[in-house]
Amino acid sequence: MNNLLAAIFGPDILALCIPIIALMIPIVAILVSHQQKMAAIIHGGRNPQTEAEIAGLQQEIRSLQGQLHAQTIAMDELRSAILNVPPQMTAQPDIQQRVGF
């Protein structure tokens, strides 16, 4: 068998292939291990505690968005009051439509 491989590839090619294949084995093992870890994170990474944390963070984001919208409207009303712009000429309805109030 060894003579068959040597006859097909030649002794120089065969001498080059053996160390390359030997070095590829740990690299493939590392890649497979990494792929398994990533699959576990993606498919099985959620538990009830993380679900509760995610729900809490989503609620906090909604709360902060509401505060931002309220402050934007308040700043617009303050600017209108400072500039003495009549109420019908303010951009308040437009801002309220943009922020969803």
Descriptive report:
The chain has 4 helices and no strands. It has 101 residues and is an all-alpha fold. The longest helix has 35 residues, at 48-82. The chain is elongated and about 100 Å long.
Secondary-structure content class:
mainly alpha
Overall helicity: over 70%
Residue-averaged pLDDT, rounded? Answer: 80
Overall 3D shape: elongated
End-to-end CA span = 81 Å
Largest sheet: none
**Helix-strand sequence:** HHHH
Strand content: under 5%
In total, the number of strands is 0
Number of helices: 4
The residue ranges in which pLDDT falls below 50 over 5 or more consecutive positions are none
- State Rg: 33 Å
Summary of the model, kept short:
With 101 residues, the chain is mainly alpha-helical.
Please outline the helices and strands:
Layout: H1 2-9, H2 11-44, H3 48-82, H4 92-99
Which keywords apply here?
101 residues; mainly alpha; 4 helices; 84% helix; elongated
